[in-house]
Each structure stands twice: as C-alpha cells, then as structure tokens.
Design goal:
The complex is a heterodimer of chains A (about 160) and B (about 180).
Chain A: H1 2-29, H2 38-50, H3 67-81, H4 86-97, H5 112-135, H6 145-163
Helix pairs in contact in A: 2-3
Chain B: H1 2-30, E1 50-53, E2 60-62, E3 71-76, H2 81-95, E4 100-105, H3 109-119, E5 125-129, H4 133-137, E6 145-149, E7 155-160, H5 165-178
Parallel strand pairs in B: 3-4, 4-5
Antiparallel strand pairs in B: 1-2, 1-5, 3-6, 6-7
The chains are: A mainly alpha (about 160), B alpha/beta (about 180).
Chain lengths: ~160, ~180
C-alpha cells in the first residue's frame, strides 16, 4: 500500500514537473506582434530570418532567445511599422552592427574571393585538363601497318563469333 | 628538365595546402576570438542621444560631452559578471587620470548606484541607458564594451570584453596614446 502511494506521488510530481517545464517553454516562445497588413508581416518575418544575431553568432534573430535578439526584433518591428522597406531596415542594422548582421554578405574587397574563388578554380581545372589532352598524342596513329591488319582481323573474328 | 617540371607540377596541390593551412592557422595561433566583432562605427562620431544622468533624473546629457578631450566610454551593467571583474582596473585607470564616461546599459538604476557607491565610481559622467537606445546606435552586443573616442568625438576603436592590465599594456595603451 505504501509502495503504491509512493509510486502515485512520484507520478504526480513528474507530471507537475513536466507541466512546469512545458509551460515555461511555451511561455518563452510566445511573442506577439500586431501588423496593419499582411505585407508588413511578411517583411518582418523575412527580415528576422535574414538578420544574424551578433551575440549568438550562428542564429538569426528570429531563432535566438538572447536578450539582444529580442531587442533587434523589437527594433525591426518598430521600423517596419514606420513603413521602412526591407533594404532600409537592413541598412539600419548594418550601420550599427556591420556586415556581420547579414547572412547574405555583399561583395566587398574582403569577400570577393567567395564569388571569384570557385570561378578561378574551374578555369584552372579546365586549363590543366586542356594541357593534359594536348600532350597526349592521338592513340590510333601509333599502330603500324602490320598491327593495323591484325586489328582488322581480330574485329572480323569477333563479329563472326557474335553472329554464330 | 622535364622531370623537374613534373615534380613541380605535382607539388602544386601541396603548396596550395600549405597556403591554406597558414591562412587558417594564423588567427587560431594569434588567439583572435571570432565572437569579438569590429565596430561598424569606427571613424564616425558618437551618435546623437539624450540620456539621463544615473544619479539625477533631471540631469540630461547629449553627444556634446564626448568632445574636447580623448576619453573612454565604458558600457557596463550590474547583471554582467565581467563588468565586476574589470571594475577595479577601471578605478586604476581613472586614478591615472584617464577621462572615462560610463554608460549603464539595460539595468536597474538603484542597483547601479549601489554598485558605484560600493565599488567606487571611476566615471566622470555616468549615463543611464535603460532601454538600450544608445547601446543599439553604438552597436553594443554585450557588456562590457569600451569605446575609444578622440577629442573630436570620433570613435577610434572598440574593445569587447574586460579591461585588464595585460590587454591594456599589450594593445590598448598604444591605441589610446595614438589618439588625438
């Protein structure tokens, strides 16, 4: 009887704990923003996905629970509600936090290799390939008359074998 | 001759590997921290703002306080353990005659005043940025951060993390001395 009581109270405790845990989580996730129209909402959601949180470096500001990410979401919301376009909001953030906040880095002297690197690699590869091909003499001309005859014979033989 | 060229050609991938290894290893060995970002405001004046003094609600400060002499702007908060760690060193710098402005960032006024009373106040002026408004304009992404501002009010450098003897002598002193 006491054992049953123990099990029951333990179960109750676990239930309570898990409930607390879940309610806490869901509480943290809820954050409501009201928009005037669907366009604004879309802009806001796009922006929070393309802006990177400077504090928690591998998350965008919509994913992150950091205090700073929340501030940036609030600021983004405020700017969107003021009627700012997506580019204007990105410019606002870049002016303060640098290009680091963009997940889509612009082409600058420091990042030019991201674009040109693969291209250079392909060109280099093609050059090597062409040079290699040019170096190889055509294989067919290597056979002298006698070898050529032998080859023809072999081919004929092979054709016959296939028919029969 | 041909053999030599062939050896060289075969060495190309190895050379590329060595260049790549040096490129990737340099920042690692130098101990640079990728979480420390360079400020986007270097070479720009301190943004315009109006903030209350931490001790006196009726006293307002604006960006003009950053003109006239070179100084440090230290961003701190009572919720930040590293700020506690660097506070002693800030007091030391202040005693050496450095002009330091403090910006209390997203904090509680009473706690902040108690902190300054208990630990000694190294700041010539203390700004109270409850909402983090100036913090956002300065691109602050944590605390502590310290901005180096020249006599014209132009931001010359930002240090992320605590100020201590080692980092000051190895790096920051030269930057401070180099400012007008």
């Amino acid at each position: 009887m006491t054992l049953l009581n123990h099990v029951l109270s333990l179960t109750a405790l676990l239930l309570l704990l898990s409930f607390m845990l879940f309610s806490h989580n869901s509480h943290a996730a809820i954050e409501t923003f009201d928009f005037d129209n669907a366009q604004q909402e879309q802009t806001f959601h796009d922006l929070t996905k393309i802006l990177r949180c400077p504090k928690c470096q591998n998350q965008n500001i919509s994913d992150s629970n950091a205090e700073l990410a929340k501030d940036l979401r609030d600021k983004t919301y405020e700017l969107v509600m003021q009627g700012k376009s997506e580019d204007e909001v990105v410019d606002y953030m870049v002016a303060r936090y640098g290009n680091f906040v963009r997940y889509d880095p612009p082409m600058t002297p420091a990042t030019i290799f991201l674009w040109l690197g693969p291209l250079l690699f392909i060109i280099f590869g093609l050059l090597v390939l062409f040079r290699q091909i040019k170096k190889q003499p055509a294989k067919e001309t290597n056979l002298d008359d006698q070898e050529q005859q032998k080859l023809q014979q072999l081919l004929k033989q092979h054709a016959k074998d296939k028919k029969s | 001759m041909l053999n030599k060229r062939r050896v060289f050609t075969l060495l190309i991938p190895f050379i590329i590997f060595v260049i790549g290894a040096v490129f990737l290893a340099t920042p690692l060995l130098k101990g640079s921290d990728p979480s420390k970002l360079e400020s986007a405001l270097i070479g720009q004046p301190v943004p315009e703002f109006t903030l209350q003094d931490i001790y006196d609600k009726d006293k307002q400060h604006d960006a003009s306080i950053f003109k006239g002499q070179k100084m440090l702007l230290n961003v701190w908060a009572t919720w930040c353990p590293t700020c506690y760690a660097e506070h002693t060193y800030l007091n030391k710098l202040s005693k050496q005659g450095l002009y330091i402005v403090g910006m209390n960032y997203k904090d509680d006024r009473q706690k902040a005043i108690r902190w300054l009373n208990d630990l000694h106040d190294p700041y010539k002026i203390s700004l109270f940025d409850k909402s983090g408004m100036l913090g956002m304009d300065l691109g602050v992404y944590g605390a502590p951060e310290t901005f180096f501002i020249d006599s014209k009010g132009i931001i010359q450098y930002r240090h992320v993390g605590d100020l201590n003897e080692k980092v000051w002598n190895n790096k920051l002193l030269a930057i401070y001395e180099g400012m007008q």
